[in-house]
Amino acid sequence: MVSFALLWRPMCLFLSCSQTTSPEESSYQIVEQLYGVPDGWTEDGVPSPATPMKFHMAVSNDRMAEFEQRVIEIATPGHQLYGQFMTRDEVGDFLRPSNDTVDRIVAWMKSERVPSESIERHANWITFTVPVSQAEDMLKTRFHSFRNDVSQETAIRTLQYSVPQDIRDFIQMIQPTIKFGQFSAQENQPDLEPVATRFDDLNVNCSTTVTTKCLRRLYGIYDTEAKPDPRNKLGVSGFLDQYARYDDFRAFMRTYEPDHTDANFNVVSINGGRNDQDSSFASTEASMDIQYAVALAYNTDTTYYTTGGRGPFVPEVDQPNVGSSSNEPYLEQLHYLLNLPDQDLPAVLSTSYGEYEQIIPESYANVTCNMYAQLGARGVSVIFASGDSGVGGSCVSNDGTGRTRFMPTFPATCPFVTSVGGTYGVDPEKAVGFSGGGFSEYFQRPAYQDESVHGYLDQLGDKWEGLYNPEGRGVPDVAAQARGFVFVDHGYFMKLGGTSAAAPVFAAIVSRLNAARLERGQGRMGFLNPWLYSLNNTGLTDIVDGGSVGCTGYSDVGGRASIVPHASWNATQGWDPVTGLGTPDLNTLIKVACSTEGT
């Protein structure tokens, strides 16, 4: 097995190993660093010194744990704060760093001649735009252009950066700096195939083919029209140049929802995200997500958020370079959403993208997860696909040891999102093999799921000991159908699977719960997990058949891979790390949701 260290070229390629440190630089402290150029990237010269770069600085806050506890309390039935969502200003005030902290950081920025008009402050974030040459002086580093060996895309990055010692403790991270890469949709591509277009030709019992009619029957979505309410918006995330096409949407609705052909959706661009209705590139993820979300949440104001840009990445075996990976730009979307006025926020946000947790630096994962907590504090139910690699793909850690390890998916592992695993078939529904799940290496198990997860671990015993973190946050939380979904892309009727299909289905059901509560004069559901784990399976069908697979010695890009014979998380009675608490029964969930209040 090749050592992880061999995946790095020496840093001395850019910084002389015998280079001495100036007195000024000795007063600086490294914030983050890589010890070489990530595998799959090649230095390709230097950018123009005048090239502008926009940086996002996460500022430390000693009230972060207190804030996250408040979010849990707001979401816990029976608590006196249940349902009392915070406003944008209240969240900002809670997380805003002390004046002394901000003053010292801004004083440093001014001493580095950062124009005041380029500095923006939002809660615990500071953004600023400066040319490359100025950024190099500020961060005591050198930026280079790097070209991806496969995609030939270029990125301006460095291998390390520093800030003055007296403000180091105030800064969690600054992006973009050392992080390379992108990420992928959670769709099971081998399932992609053309299908018949006539509804009568399709088996609607969910055993082989899934349509909206099938899902309505299976999950009790019999009331096909929710009462419109401006407080109940549904958001669907779009990344990686995936466009939701109106022509395909209308064709889908005419065929499978003929009574709801008046349905529609909005498109909002974030960070230069495009809305190319004439693109010749496949948009399977966007098509499937928007078609099922709008159809099942009919009469709900639905928006497709198309986000441009690329997110951070740390190399690992299954995704060593930008050509074989694709990290969606979480920060760009999150900053946009968190800056929205309260009345413009979606009540539910469905995202069908993710990547192995170990790819994301822990500091970045923590910062991002807290931003999802901020959405939850403001009454947004954040839904994520749990992943499509079962227990893991290559199952090789990237911590320098190259040890065998199961690999959960982020952001599904964030304790402030609701992660959705996958099932297939009917009577009974079974866990689908690719359904992602497991236990986070970064996030400790939250109290709201401790009892449920302990029940599974007690049954598991010492099986898979050493391959996962038994103290970690358990994934997924719930599940839904994830195989054989019929949708339309570029005029063709196709069939596709993945937990990316399950996420918008569950999101649409949550939107229905919101509609029912709002119609009765109650508030939205908001962050769901404490409520879900308090149900004792009421309104959820426990999945006890099937299990996940993984660690088969195959790497997505032909890199190193470990074999763990019969590796699997089995579906069992109660919570399990392949289907969570189970699949939804909407009618029962509505009854429970409408009877849930605080003290």
Automatic annotation (TrEMBL):
Which species is the source of this protein? Aspergillus chevalieri (Eurotium chevalieri)
Give the function comment from the record: Secreted tripeptidyl-peptidase which degrades proteins at acidic pHs and is involved in virulence.
Q: Where is the active site?
A: 285 (charge relay system), 289 (charge relay system), 500 (charge relay system)
Q: Any idea what this protein is called? A: tripeptidyl-peptidase II
Question: Where does the Peptidase S53 domain start and stop, copy by copy?
Answer: 209-596
Concerning SUPFAM superfamilies, the annotation shows: Protease propeptides/inhibitors, Subtilisin-like
Q: Which reaction does it catalyse?
A: Release of an N-terminal tripeptide from a polypeptide
State where the protein is found. Answer: Secreted, Extracellular space
Query: In the Enzyme Commission scheme, what number(s) does this protein have?
Result: 3.4.14.10
**Binding site residues for Ca(2+):** 542-543, 574, 576
Instruction: Give GO BP annotations, semicolon-separated.
Output: proteolysis
Keywords noted in UniProt: Calcium, Glycoprotein, Hydrolase, Metal-binding, Protease, Secreted, Serine protease, Signal, Virulence, Zymogen
One Pfam family name is: Pro-kuma_activ
Q: What is the lineage of its organism?
A: Eukaryota, Fungi, Dikarya, Ascomycota, Pezizomycotina
Does the keyword field hold Amino-acid biosynthesis? no
Gene3D superfamilies, sorted = Peptidase S8/S53 domain (3.40.50.200)
Co-factor note (free text) = Binds 1 Ca(2+) ion per subunit.
User: Keyword Coiled coil: yes or no?
Assistant: no
Q: Where is the signal peptide?
A: 1-23
- CC cofactor: Ca(2+)
Q: Which GO terms describe its molecular function?
A: metal ion binding; serine-type endopeptidase activity; tripeptidyl-peptidase activity
Any one GO cellular component localisation term in the record: extracellular region
